[in-house]
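Quick note —
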Amino acid sequence: YEGSGPPPLDEAFYLALATKKEDRFDIFGGCPGAVVSLLYLAAETLLYTSRGMSENLFLEAETYRVTMERQETQAKLEYQTMLAMFPVLASRQAFFETKDKLDDAPPPTTERMLDVVISRCDAPLTWLWELEWPQGTRFFIYDKCEKTRHDHEGLLEQLQGLAGRGELFHHFVEETSEYMTAECTAYLTHITAHVERHDVALYTMFMHDDGPRHLKPDFLNMVLRAMGQGNLEVGFLNLAHERYAGISTPCLRQVHELTFGEPLEGLVTTYCCAHMLVHRDRILARSPQFWQDTLALVHEAPHARPPADGSSSAPICSIGKKPCYVMEYMWHIMFGEPAFLPKREDDRRLPVFLQWEGGRATRMESPLHIAPYLIPFFPRAYS
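Predicted structure written out below.
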């Protein structure tokens, strides 16, 4: 609450969901400030996705706090000590501020909420079945590999668990050069076509077909649940778990200048592998010509060729036949984010429920084994 570190969401949800109420009462006896503050925090984050659970945790925290506040003499001193040591009042105030903000927000839009753009080769897509997609979601599958180009029936079989929850559009992206352009041509083909047709959904989600290799489906499901309830308001959100180190290489600087027409200042860092959610305003903030030029840049790939002036026999980017690889470091810049993208847990522009640090700071078990914060969002929409 003082901006000095990420919200302890795993710890809050371990207390709220992995302990019984009578056990929490015992813990409260030994450390009341931690219990009350963490329950308020858990209640605030759940306002975005699970209002009933949020209200129950808030009432529990209020009961503990008010009980101490109304005590006399020594217990009254303990209450004052609790307020001095823990952010009890700050966490309570944050709950009310978030609740008021969400209650005062306009009702969920009736316009098209979400388009999902998937760059596909050969990974199965059945993992999409379990997620809580908003009604009317459009799924755009862009096949990149020859072996799946004509397998429309196979694709329908893979996506049968989504029946009745959205529309399916199947495209094949031709490689127009000797390069393997990965997700770049899928994403950019989609953007250029839909910008030109004035058909950009409120949010567009870009992912690979092997999404669960790079992102946590539980985290994604939480985002979708908030969206479906009309409680999501972000310009850009990276969905992946792994993160790149901050870098600035000759290759990256050249491609940045080719893309944006200006030199790169400082380091670039982002999350891995180009899985992201983007608001329509961020897409339309760039001109149609920008998106067309970026698509042409990927196809022509001057950064993957030796310099035209013959000054070297080697390209400045040692990326072989994969010119899209370096673009992974710049999608967020294209969508209006700073080159050095803040970590989600440090980004105070995001609502608190998205500031999960992925278990990197917690003293609890690795999030690969346990992630208490994501327990309520385990995907099970189909099963």
